[in-house]
């Protein structure tokens, strides 16, 4: 009887340990849409359908786990630039674009899929129904970017989480340095900024990530009252706004020369002062909700206020690309990012 009781006890103990071990081999997460998912550990085969989120994976040192990925701004292998191949030698094998294909992703034996929580809702449901865990991201502010990195780090294990925590600390440090430097700029003297899209009359709304970056850098977005995504306006509205600075994203075919040479835009203060700037780009576009956006804040602050105390942007540029991407900048890339 005693032996049977002992056997029963040992059986129960081993069962408990087995359940505990199983629990240790999975993490339960709540993504940015509020959906709950369970991710078996370790994640060794990862698919990122979320073009901005792909760069979270590189930042967390987990790029070797990607088996398929969308990259923001890369619509085909012929549109990839040299820096992309230097960052990712496997780009031809990994690159995907357009609408995601469920069968192809299943064929890649994905253990975890990253998606845009707005654009890919139906696809995410399909993958979840097939038993593949999906992280859905909603990132349109710096705080949500930090949440997204930490969420990804938890899904990818302790090393990735440690890097996510280090990134968040770096982001806060850079933001804090900019905020401290801006204390000498009175609120009434803050520059008024127009952020254009890929066409002269396409502007960033107040709900977009670009507006958060402008505000963090001490600017005031003249289009901050607009809602939605990229919004088309007329020239009369631009003339009424009369911004001090005009910014152009580091993608598309619009360049400062087109604005500066346009007689219709000549009355603007930004044009008269020659303060029309296209943002630099090495890998991901800094105006998007990607890790490089921590550099965008410092870059914008120096563009808005050239006389600010030195934010040591050059050092931050080197630190970021070396620490998070393991990427060696060329001198031309370094100079462009540092505003020289």
Walk me through the structure:
This protein folds into 2 domains: 166 residues, Rossmann fold (3-Layer(aba) Sandwich); 153 residues, Rossmann fold, CATH 3.40.50. 44% of the residues lie in helices and 13% in strands. It contains 15 helices and 12 strands. Helix 7 runs antiparallel to helix 8.
Question: Which structural traits does this protein have?
Answer:
alpha/beta; Rossmann fold; 2 domains; four-stranded parallel beta sheet; disordered N terminus
Secondary structure topology:
Layout: H1 2-24, E1 26-30, E2 36-40, E3 46-48, H2 54-59, E4 66-69, H3 82-87, H4 91-94, H5 102-107, E5 112-116, H6 121-129, E6 134-137, H7 142-156, H8 158-181, E7 192-195, E8 202-203, H9 209-216, E9 220-221, E10 231-232, H10 235-241, E11 245-248, H11 256-260, H12 269-272, E12 276-278, H13 293-304, H14 313-325, H15 331-337
Parallel strand pairs: 3-4, 3-5, 5-6, 7-9, 7-11, 11-12
Antiparallel strand pairs: 1-2, 8-10
Helix pairs in contact: 7-8, 8-13
Name the CATH class of the largest domain: Alpha Beta
Q: Count structural domains.
A: 2
**Sheet with the most strands: spatial strand order:** 4-3-5-6
Largest sheet data: 4 strands, parallel
Query: For this entry, what is the oligomeric state of its chains?
Result: single chain
Overall 3D form: globular
The CATH superfamily label of the largest domain reads Nitrogenase molybdenum iron protein domain
Count up the helices.
15
How much β-strand is present in the residues?
A: 5-15%
Order of helices and strands: HEEEHEHHHEHEHHEEHEEHEHHEHHH
Helicity level: 40-55%
Task: Classify the fold: give the CATH topology of the largest domain.
Answer: Rossmann fold
Q: State Rg.
A: 23 Å
Query: How many angstroms does the end-to-end distance come to?
Result: 84 Å
Low-confidence blocks of residues: 1-23
Strand runs, count: 12
- CATH architecture designation of the largest domain: 3-Layer(aba) Sandwich
Mean pLDDT: 90
Computed structural class: alpha/beta
